[in-house]
Fold each of these.
Amino acid sequence: MSATPDTLLQVRGLYKHFPIRAGLLQRQVGAVKAVDGVDFDVYRGETLGLVGESGCGKSTTARLVTRLLDPTAGTISWEGNDIANLSRSELKPLRREMQMIFQDPYSSLNPRKTVGTIIGEPFIIHGVEPDEGKRKKRVQELMEQVGLNPEHYNRLPHQFSGGQRQRIGVARAIALKPKLIVADEPVSALDVSIQAQILNLLRDLQRELGLTIIFIAHDLSVVRHTCDRVAVMYLGRIVEMAPSDLLYGHPRHPYTGALLSAVPVPDPRLARNKTRQVLTGDVPSPTNPPNACRFHTRCPKFVQGTCDVVDPPLEPKEGGNVAACHFPLSDEEIASRVPTAAA
Amino acid sequence: MAAYILRRLLWTVLLLLVITAVTFLIFYVLPSGDPAVRRAGRAPSPETIAAIRHSLGLDKSLPVQYWDYIKKLVLHFDFGQSYVNDQPVRQQMFDRLPNTMFLVGGAAVLWFTIGVTVGIVSAVARGSFWDRFLMGAALIAISAPVYWLGLVCLYLFSDDIGQWKIFPGAGSYQDAHGFFDKAWTLVMPWFVLAAAFSAIYARLLRSNLLETMSEDYIRTARAKGLPERRVIFRHGVRSAITPVITVLGLDIGILMGGAILTETVFNIDGIGRLSYDAIQRGDLSTIQGTTLLLALAVALSSLIVDIMYAFLDPRVRY
Amino acid sequence: MSEPLLQVEDLRVHFDTEDGLVKAVDGVSYTVGAGQALGIVGESGSGKSVSSMTVMGLTRASNAHISGRVVFDGKDLLAATDEEMRAIRGGQIAMIFQDPLSSLHPFYKIGDQLIEARRVHHHEESKAQARDRAIEMLSLVGIPDPRSRVDSYPHEFSGGMRQRVMTAMALINDPKLLIADEPTTALDVTVQAQILDLIMKLQHELDTAVVMITHDLGVVAEVAEEIAVMYAGRIVEKGLADTIFAEPEHPYTWGLLNSIPRLDTPRDQELVPIPGRPPSLITRPPGCSFAPRCPYVRESHRRIDPVLADAEGPGHLVACLLPKPTRRALWSKLRDGVQPEEAKQAVGIPETLSASAPEQEVKA
């Protein structure tokens, strides 16, 4: 697959295995296979969602893409150039172009620095705007842009609420007008009535600044609303990827079906009428994932001899979704289990 | 677990070797006088000094001296002779070790009991008069230097020079025989040695317990309807005391190298007195011996403490 | 019509703190029938957790001022002695909490913790009997291989399994009432579904009443028959679940319903956030506590404190000063995706007040 000018990021064969050491000489006895063979593209201007439950590898993937972690193997092409193996100094200019927003607004801001300093740091680090006065002006403009009062320039993080702190994080991320923002669960730690404020803010900023966003979350409703395309991850792999309408309209992978079936919908009548597909058991350990299809130990459509022997490739299925499954969900199955699907 | 212990023991051996080398170097680098001269007495002749030097093996080169020492130590468990009185160092140490152990052991029981009790009372009655009084007393106990405290105790309570003649005075430990007589002479030293430690442990346990009592599992324990006493002890103290026990192990280990100040004030013939005297007299063999003993005690106690942690906290796995 | 199992009347819980008097719960009343499920919805600072902790007697601290009545099975719990409360806690009323990892003691096996919960209320049972009961409960909540897992430690379980263990521990004494405070917030969505299913199954099999406290409207729609919406220490709306979701009458409830992304509404439907932020419980403005954030506020709303009064549906109460016809007209617009400002213009807000205005105006 060649990169078109519209492709901002291309990830191929991405692996991240964390070694486990034991024994007298601390030899490697195993590995936590956090990311275990992931391919995807990110197109300019889109919002791509990465969903999955704990341990699926979505946060690790985000950190690999922004090179906060070193990949064990694979390529990460940023605007055509592979950045997977660049050194820290080579990566520095790239950091202006890709930024992260983190989950916990209470611990991701340095409590000893003022808001003005926090938002102004990117300017200092990359040598943009050395003049202190002009920098302050730009920081205050950013504060206004994200909905903060610019007069609070000298306040400390603990003087702000959770939602406001998240806005500070956003301001810092967009300070140097990056091309890509990776938002790792940006609203999960916020009160419900504040979440919408931050989601709307991100949407508005994306329009104003032409941002591309990778949006990581476990809340499927939030992802459906904010993302154009969604990739579903399980045990370090992508099991399904599709534009939002297609994914939520007719999910093909049984895991996606189970996820959607499990989401509690704020409508008591729908809740009463659906036959929920409840997955049994726990997610297997990423140190010892099941053979072939990773999901086969919990899959309601498991067929012995196929699913535990042959690894299903990620390929297009009926309706346009790309899924890794030998026996994808049929329209009838979707209709009975996922009450919100519009198959 | 076995692999872990083995690894730690190997590191300990390495550590001890390094310590012998460092002690050797320090002794020769820092000016402490020529041991041969000191040994030789008054107005020695150069021949006498040279003879003494030869008998002590000081005329050999440094690496050779070191190698000889290591050989004797590893093959024969021989720590050499004291430069001062030619006594075997090993004998001197082992003679004195039980005294230090008695002193430190008794003090440890005392400071742990007092410290934990005060810590619990303070935490449970947080903010009350008792809490502030006890923590204030703790501050005083920590600030009082051991030798000052020891001298004050002797001045007040010792049966030879004190105001109220209750406890045996300095030097009485040597003269006492039998377990209970000896213990009686150690009552004041125990308190003096335990004072600062009790205070530190009380403060430590208090702050740990306060933190533990705000944990979620305490809320669960109360929600189960458990009596408050059970919540505090079986759920709160049980968690809060784990770091205190590990500190106890380390403190005992360090003190095994000699509670120098206490032993000196009360004239107890322990390892502490031995090393103090050896340093004063430039007696390298003995210094080497007591330093190694201290290092071994600390390394072993830290290993024991780490292993104990695995028994105390089931989440810890080696 | 039998007496309700739990009757909370005008409960107030105020705390003395360095920053002032925190009115965490400020006049809350609700009832729960035997075997029924009540959902309490609210965000941080709404008072939802404090009110349940008070029912359990867990807020009896020296700086707490508690008033009102909490009648459980005919007994006034607020007037009960500490010893009486201790006997009821974990016995007839049990509670499960949000984070199952930190809520279980890390140093004790789960079997021992379960046995402890059993024996404190059943002194007559031997250790062996209590252990059998513990294994029975573990099996009931779906822990595989309970005979051997009863000797495992909390950190040896996954998050979902731990929450099952917590549930087993709460139900081991056959309580009449189970209070679940955000039991699934820390869990993955598929695990959350398992736990909610478990709670509902046990509610029906054991006829246990359930109070489900959460901020998640989806969770409460699945579990609750009746819902109470809390804001700033008060209940602002109360009624049957179907009514609250179909015909809500409080602007805060509208705000909650329209600000959350949902799977069952069009994808491109705008999220309408509630402006401003959750209120301070120390400095309450006079008048309606939601007024600073309400798009439909009138001048008089800032002076008069609304009380709960009848709304349209059966058993439906709401504390809002807007007249009922106005509320219904606004909701029918908002429900169709109209923005609050537009809806306000279209419907028009009169100055007259609803039945929620108390007879005497509160002086500003």
Amino acid sequence: MRAAYPDAVPLAGGTDLMADVNFGRRRPAAVLDLSRVRELRDWHSDDGTVFVGAGVTFARIARELAALRPLAEAARSVGSPQIRNRATLGGNVATASPAGDSIPVLAAYDAEIVLASVTHHRNVPWHAFFLGPKRTALEPDELVVGAEWRLVDAPGSFAKVGTRNAMVIAVAGVCLQLHPSERSLRLALGSVAPTVIRAHDAEALAAAAIDWNDAERPLPPVIGREFGRLASLGAQPIDDVRGTAAYRRRAVEVLARRALEWAVADRRAAA
Amino acid sequence: MIIHANVNGSIQELDVPPAASLLAILRDSLGLTGAKNACEQGECGACTVWLDGAPVCSCLVAAVQADGAAVRTVESVAGGDVLHPVQEAFLDSGAVQCGFCTPGLVVAAVDLLEHDPNPDEETIREGLAGNLCRCTGYRKVVDAVRLASERSS
Amino acid sequence: MTAGATTGAGVGAGARRIDGVPKVTGAYVYGSDLRTENMLWGATVRSPHPSARIVGIDVSHALGSPGVRAVLTADDLPGRRTIGLEFCDQPVLADDVVRYAGEPVAIVAAETAAQARVAADAVEVEYELLPAVVDMEEALRGDSPHVHDFGNVLRHIHIVHGDLETARADVWVDGYYETAMQDQAALGPEAGLALPGHEGGVDIYAVTQWLHVDRQQMAPCLGLPEEHVRLTAAGVGGAFGSREDLHMQLHAALLALRTRRPVKMTYGREESFHGHVHRHPSRIWIRYGATHDGRIVAADVRLLLDGGAYASSSPAVVGNASTFAAGPYEIPNVRIEGTVVYTNNPPCGAMRGFGAPQVCFAYESAMDALADRLGLDPVELRLRNALRTGSVLPTGQVITGTAPVREVIERCRAVPLPPAEDTVGRDPISYPGGAGHVSRGESLRRGVGFAVGFKNVAYSEGFDDAAEATVTLRPAPNGPVAVVRTAAVDYGQGLYTVLAQIVRSELGVEEVVFEPASTESGSAGSTSASRQTTMTGGAVLAACRELKAALDGGPATLPISRTHVFHHRPTTGFDADGQGDIHVSFSFAAERAVVEVDTELGLARVVEIAAVQDAGRVINPLGAEGQVEGGTAMGLGLALTEQVSLDGGVIRNPSFTDYLIPTILDVPPIVTEFVEEPEPGAPYGLKGIGEVATVAATPAIVAALRAATGRTLNRVPVTPDDLVGIRPPAATDGRAPVPAVSGQEAIPEALGLGLGQQQLMKAREP
């Protein structure tokens, strides 16, 4: 359908598109209503792979995917209950704001974005999909079908900072996910670069410092502080009406350190 | 485009422009002006209605998406002349001042109590976090939800 | 918490709102809900530039746009071309220049709202950019661009009392403070409906705070006598000062008269930010001198307000702010220099507190600094210097009414502090940062802060304020019904409920109904300045008593009516030294805030606020608490989250996405208490209560943040950058110079320019 009506704007939850329409920033001549496509509303987890359809709302993610803690925490932090009932994973992905709440989670999961057109399906690794602020690798005749990743049953978390206690666009966000089977972890940063980015230097430091054989071994505080510092160095934040670059660096440093401390503590508690 | 939606229990046939919002159709085509336009961006909740049973910001729903769906607005909350316990509680608690946010809050509060009849303070506040009010400071809104909950148990 | 509301109750009861049922069912009609047959929609074309000459306007494309029925520019205006609350310095539609980004330039009417928007976008305006002045101190400099021909000083207030030069103090503290531009952010937008009348007149249903001042401005601009311009209040969804100046009323009326069809206009949120005045940003330099034992002997304040492009009510705001600038304290030697300047920023005017919040932030912050320097408890310092009945203010005015400042302070201090909370193991949403899930209890520090503020009730400086009301007893099967006719607007505070309670108590009549508020009756004055319960309540009370006296003779023939116009006692203007009986009455409030700060992230959570307010006599406890709670929340917004962010005179955040008013997760429990010492000369001894909570809340919260973090925090809103210490305190190069003006009058008045509304502002002859 998308190929037949290339000017029709895809629409699912409408929480991004309709906001633009209401403010006169976009006047689509036609919309492609994806909210009725049943397949997009499915999620499944089998064979160690999780697939979440583009049409799954954040309310459902928070309720039905609570076991995937970082994803559920990100979903719970989106907007408001009303927004969560409509906003979808696919919309978050297709809009590709660097502040999109689900994107750091997808990055920390090493997720692939599943795309489809009339002629083909393809999976694109997240870092090849998000190209810049609100720019993606989506072709004009393609739709986002969902995201999938290998299930990791290990501690992780999502956190985002805003200037009030609810309904904020993230000034800075982080997602951390331990991958014990690989003796590594992923740390993704949101709102501090043109796209969501991974903090590779910080990841390497922590991967080397964590005792992957002994879950009860505490992590020296200096590691957490250095982890935060390296994460912050990797960020490229800007000043905008929502926050300053200097504060964003500070927030990333603190959030990253806390995320690591929580992951280590949760790992110890589970053991 | 012609759509058919069940609005407050009766099927409506409506001709809607492609990008018109459900809020605009409810207010302008159906005269259901309870849902309000206060921000047009889903930031304030004054336009909250139920869409297939879930509270949503109707300003962010394209009207075409209501085709075949069930829409309930604040006008459906009272039972004729009998107010819903949430509405009574809002009045008894002093939770209404200018009232512009009230329809959205009533829908959100009714929905909250339908899912959790005995919410604690944090649950109430998280459940109403999508509704802005400029007049009350929210305290009496929380009181009203608690009062409605107590009265219904 | 007060016990639940009751119906049909009199003065002193928590009566249920008489307009409550339609509000909870969605049936209540606000300006934006109005519609009628054959209606057109209006839209406004606004300048994107803060300062520019209009070279030309091409409306041809707009006129040819589908559904368009009219396009009007300044050339089409039939009468006077300017409006204004105090001075008519503001073009109805921009003529040769635009002076702020957002200024209306043209208006269109079309068959649908969407068509009107498209047509407005099709109006082509050619601008020649001009230099803009967007900094209030720069505006004072002689070489800065002039916003108006007569220069950038709109008004300067000079107050001198005692002798500052000879004041002997042991200790001096100097402080510099800044407050940002705040927006009223009423949920209900500017909206209304204008219908052309048969005789060439026009009927307007509008969202407003004062019908008669709207009419007084509109009639000459429409080229119509006032009797042919009829305004009726539509439901108003909040105002807080943003509905005192004209917004769409005149534009819709012009379009209605041109097209001979009803015209509806309603602003969306973005346009609303451009379509009303905001709270004046301020810079304040304050110096206190005190003896070792904590008696303040001297205060020297310089305050500067940014009035933006047009006068609005700025002259009154700077007058107000100046009279409060030294704080609610007995100080024998005071100098206050207060200036409001024009800039090319968006115009500022009335917002809840009307200048008092800005100076309260400064003087209460300075008081804490003084207490610290003296080694005194901050509350004790305030108690030692608090005003009372009989005190002399810096204006020489003697407080003749009640002033239970000490009691308000002591009662606030006596409210038990909230219990300590566990730092770990809470619901994640209860940590600072709320729904963002940023904490498990790390680096939390609590702080407690205290502030006292005061505000005038009713209008000042010799304004002959009055309110008319008519009460009629009509016969009915179940007993007489009282009908109240008032032009007063209730935009949420519950005025009509209070009036009904007064009628019930005075006449013993259960059922009270209200006629629509319109210009058909005499002016009730503005719903602002915390004045309506006193003024319209006073008129209703007097009318009821006149009715009772008329009925005392024996059985009455109903219907019977009495009309009363209530005036408060006269006030005076400022003399050359800023002395005068400026205000009618004062109300005081103390607030104590407890905050919890995540010191690593700089995120704050207000844990609880205790608010004690001097109310004279509480007419409706539920309504009164609602005003204190809502007012406190608005002060919380200025303290922590709200700022209209300007870049070169352009608003960067005209939306609720980025202009952040407090959510339910941001406002804590508020413990409210009232001190009731009846105010002489006031109906039931009451004092207006709508504003002073807003005044005291901001400094109380900032004081708590300082206690939690040790940061200086001399600017609001406080940001996370301030709390973590990566943004230094606001700095100054020194006091803004005092402009060379003679007299206390606003410059336009002194120059005899566009006197506009000044006819309304003349004092009664003594």
